[in-house]
Design brief:
This protein has 402 residues and is mostly helical. It folds into three domains: 42 residues; 96 residues, Receptor-associated Protein, CATH 1.20.81.30; 228 residues, Up-down Bundle (Receptor-associated Protein), CATH 1.20.81. 74% of the residues lie in helices and 5% in strands. It is built from 16 helices and three strands. It has a three-stranded antiparallel beta sheet, covered by helices on one side. A hairpin with a 5-residue loop joins strand 1 and strand 2. Helix 6 packs antiparallel against helix 7 and helix 12 runs antiparallel to helix 13. The radius of gyration is 30 Å and the shape is extended.
């Protein structure tokens, strides 16, 4: 059980310092009150420890099942704290059990559920936190948890499709890269004496010169090149974790040919589905826009939605500022405009999300089909370059002798 260091004052007016054992901070405060002590400060007494043990990642499907079970417990009349206790005790995944226990303790101390979840970004996504916040404020937490679980399951299904579709192109790319590196590092140097004699006689083709230079660099400094590449990748990943880096990455995603439309399509779909769900449950439009902007999954789109919310608060319709940002398709904006006029926005938004999901799924299948021949073409081109660079001097020597 956790220990808390406290500083309190007794009836005599003297300060008392000590350690108390309690499940939560609130229980520690109650225990001090039972001792006729008036708390001045109470903080965790656990020493900061550096651990090198990496926590296991919580799978999306497992988290979706947990949210569904929480919704079922709440619908059955089980209090929130008891529900979190049950889920933490039944969790087989050790990291999930730790997270749920901490969330339970924070909620017991008076922290809202969404804020307690937000302290564990490695487990709960922005979409989950936004939906829980909306459900707590709008008194439809059970429905919000179930809808969030549905969103997570769809997201995991999509990720599985992408991984499955990209497995073959990834194997091709890896095999092609490995074969090319082996040819350059181990095979090309065997021709170096021959190329030296040919260069002394009359020079080498430019392709061969480039190939020899690459072979020389990788052969002598390959370890340093790999270390430099690793350092650059690490630096880029650290930069992308910052708010500015994530905004840059989200903006760059939208500019990728073919894939950019897919990223934008899924972001718009998530926004429309979450906004429609919130409006269906009676959440006001401005509050719904604030929450759904956080769950879009793309910061460029989120900024555009927040700007639209500011315009809507001044009396404009929703369709006009969304159209001005240039991120929403014209057909979507036309449907939103008509839905606002007919006062049927919440239902239309969900239908829009379904339509975008179907269209984006077709675009994803097309992109995967294009990737396979493109990967083969790149791999064949790299190997062909190596072979041509090796054979060109031989052909020139043959023609000279003839």
């Amino acid at each position: 059980m956790p220990e808390f260091a406290y500083k309190a004052r007794n009836h005599a007016g003297s300060d008392v310092i000590g350690i108390i054992t309690a499940a939560t901070k609130r229980e520690a405060l109650c225990a001090l009150g039972d001792r006729s002590l008036f708390p001045i400060s109470v903080a965790s007494a656990a020493p900061a420890r550096i651990t090198w043990q990496r926590k296991r990642r919580i799978k999306t499907q497992l988290l979706a099942n947990t949210l569904t079970q929480m919704a079922d417990l709440l619908q059955s009349g089980v209090p929130l704290l008891r529900s979190l206790d049950v889920l933490a005790e039944q969790a087989i995944h050790p990291t999930l059990s730790e997270v749920l226990t901490d969330v339970r303790n924070q909620v017991a101390d008076g922290t809202p559920l969404d804020e307690a979840m937000a302290r564990h970004p490695e487990a709960f996504s922005e979409l989950t936190i936004s939906m829980v916040r909306a459900g707590s404020e709008g008194a439809f937490l059970e429905d919000a948890l179930k809808r969030t679980a549905d969103f997570l399951e769809k997201q995991e299904e999509l990720r599985g499709r992408i991984v499955g579709a990209m497995t073959y192109p990834a194997i091709l790319a890896s095999a092609g890269f490995l074969i090319t590196v082996v040819l350059i590092v181990f095979f090309v140097p065997k021709f170096a004496p021959l190329f030296a004699r040919l260069e002394a006689q009359g020079g080498l083709p430019i392709a061969t010169v480039w190939l020899l230079a690459m072979s020389n660099i990788l052969g002598k400094y390959g370890v340093f090149v790999a270390a430099a590449v690793g350092a650059v990748v690490y630096w880029v990943r650290r930069r992308l974790q910052s708010p500015e880096g994530r905004l840059f990455a989200d903006r760059a995603k939208l500019k990728i040919p073919i894939a950019g439309k897919i990223f934008l399509g899924y972001a718009v779909s998530r926004f429309c589905r979450v906004l429609g769900t919130l409006l269906t449950n009676g959440v006001p439009l401005l509050k719904s826009l604030e929450i759904s902007s956080d769950s879009a999954g793309n910061r460029v789109l989120s900024q555009a939605i927040r700007t639209s919310a500011d315009t809507v608060s001044s009396g404009e319709t929703l369709a006009k500022p969304l159209a001005e940002c240039g991120l929403f398709p014209r057909s979507v904006m036309a449907m939103i405009s008509v839905a606002e006029e007919s006062n049927n926005l919440e239902n239309v938004l969900v239908n829009i999300a379904d339509g975008i999901d179907r269209q984006t799924s077709r675009q994803l299948d097309l992109m995967v089909r294009l990737l396979e021949p493109l990967t083969l073409l790149i791999m064949a081109s790299a190997i062909l370059f190596v072979l041509i660079a090796l054979l060109l001097p031989v052909f020139q020597m043959s023609s000279t002798v003839t």
